[in-house]
Amino acid sequence: MTAAPPRVLVAGIGNIFLGDDGFGVETVRRLAAQPLPPGTELADIGVRGVHLAYRMLDGYDTVVLVDAVPGGGPPGTVRTVEPDGAGPPAGQVAVDGHHMTPDAVLALLDHLSETTGAGRPRRILVVGCVPANLDEGIGLSAPVEAAVDEAVRLLTTLLHEATDTPAGAPGPAGSPAART
């Protein structure tokens, strides 16, 4: 009997109507075209941060949040952060379904985990890109557009590490990952 592969959720976060804030959603859309390891699920979360916090309680081993994140270099800089859990307490986070940052989602996740007894994912990562433009409008700026392919390559590597599968090894019969 073979053990089930680790469950990994990659969640694209952001508002596509606010320029580079759509980075996470676009990155996950492009990642969907890649062969991904078994157990990988992709989700276009958009601005549904509360939904994401509840979904993260569904037994995932690893969750990767993909979002535009301020600071840390020039626009288009891609970085990976493993949150340390030192964010604001859930009671101090304004739960706004359309403006939840990864920190706010994680604070809500902590609160939900404590109050429901459901387990958090073993590992949570944030793959972020420094935005150039967050003004109203659809479409990514040139530096953030260029960063999407870099982020897809990074995510592909992270997913193979998280599922302990060799890079380039597709899911069963080359099937794409589950998408929601």
Overview of this protein structure:
With 180 residues, this protein is an alpha/beta fold. The protein contains 4 helices and 6 strands. Helix 1 packs across helix 4 (142-163) and helix 2 (49-55) packs across helix 3. The longest helix has 22 residues, at 142-163. The protein is globular.
How many H/I helices?
A: 4
Side-by-side strand order of the widest sheet:
4-5-3-1-2-6
Strand content: 15-25%
C-alpha geometry: globular
Biggest pleated sheet: 6 strands, mixed
- Average pLDDT figure: 85
Question: What are the defining features of this structure?
Answer:
180 residues; alpha/beta; 6-stranded mixed beta sheet; 4 helices; 6 strands; 29% helix; 18% strand; globular
SSE blueprint:
Layout: E1 8-13, H1 23-31, E2 40-46, H2 49-55, E3 62-68, E4 78-81, H3 102-116, E5 123-129, H4 142-163, E6 178-179
Parallel strand pairs: 1-2, 1-3, 2-6, 3-5
Antiparallel strand pairs: 4-5
Short account of what is shown:
The chain is 29% helix and 18% strand. It has 180 residues and is an alpha/beta fold.
